[in-house]
Amino acid sequence: MPVNALYRDDFYLSTCEAIVTAVHEDGGIELDQTCFYATSGGQPGDTGLLERADGTKIALGQTKHGPSKDVIIHVPLESEPRPVVGETLVLHVDWPRRYRLMRMHTACHLLSVVCSYPITGAAVGEEESRVDFDMIETIDKDEVTAKLMELVEQNHPVTLQWITDEELVANPDIVKSKNVRPPMGLGRVSLVCIGKNSSIDSQPCGGTHVSETQEVGRIHIAKIEKKGKENRRFRIRFGTPGDEA
């Protein structure tokens, strides 16, 4: 039975109860529902704890998808205790880490607004993220930083809208990514919408994001690298350029 991935509808949900539905030979745990984000689309999966009825805790090193997107596997660290099928657990996401990733992922979307070129790759990190663009133009990183911070400080709402897989196929132009497929296969696709009535941006994405751009905080472009004749890599970091020292 497909897992109920609660985070898809509530990015701020950091704890919930769940029942163990399977325990793999390598220790991986499947649950009937989860608030843990599974690695996908350049964003790392959540880490955290699974709490048992007796108060003992199982520390997780990663969360990943199984053979399909409707299977989510919670992978404990080595030597952690194993639950049994049918056991009820309380899930606790490492919230400070998740929230940093939410802020960073939203910042990547804002960068795609400032730099309106096809995206050839991306990776979201706790301290630094990167977005690769299909472009040959030279662009000033301080100018990009200023435009990013303008969008952050305008505090645009960030909302989620659902469309069907068929609607996405019928409207391919809304996909900015050149090489990465949008998160399809579940019958519906989430659009991350920035600004009132998507006035700033609307992009298919299965990651987690903050609810308003001001939550991103201070960010800057630390570096722009040339990665091939028609590829530029932008590195986003928290803080100001002066923090580089």
Fold topology:
Blueprint: E1 4-5, E2 15-23, E3 29-31, E4 33-34, E5 48-51, E6 57-65, E7 72-76, E8 88-93, H1 95-114, E9 119-123, E10 128-133, H2 141-153, E11 158-164, H3 165-170, E12 188-194, E13 201-204, E14 219-226, E15 232-238
Parallel strand pairs: 1-4
Antiparallel strand pairs: 2-3, 2-8, 5-6, 5-8, 6-7, 9-10, 10-15, 11-12, 12-13, 14-15
Please give a structural write-up.
Keywords: Hydrolase, Metal-binding, Zinc. GO terms for molecular function: alanine-tRNA ligase activity; aminoacyl-tRNA deacylase activity; ATP binding; metal ion binding; nucleic acid binding. This is Alanine--tRNA ligase. Its cofactor is Zn(2+). Pfam families: tRNA-synt_2c, tRNA_SAD. It is a single chain. The protein is α+β, with helices and mostly antiparallel strands and 245 residues long. It has two domains: 4-93, Elongation Factor Tu (Ef-tu), domain 3, CATH 2.40.30; 98-238, Threonyl-trna Synthetase, Chain A, domain 2 (Threonyl-tRNA Synthetase, Chain A, domain 2). The chain is built from three helices and 15 strands. It has helices at residues 95-114, 141-153, 165-170; strands spanning 4-5, 15-23, 29-31, 33-34, 48-51, 57-65, 72-76, 88-93, 119-123, 128-133, 158-164, 188-194, 201-204, 219-226, 232-238. The strands form four sheets. It has a six-stranded antiparallel sheet, with no helix packed on it. Helix 1 crosses helix 2. It is globular and about 55 Å long. The model has no long low-confidence stretch (mean pLDDT 91).
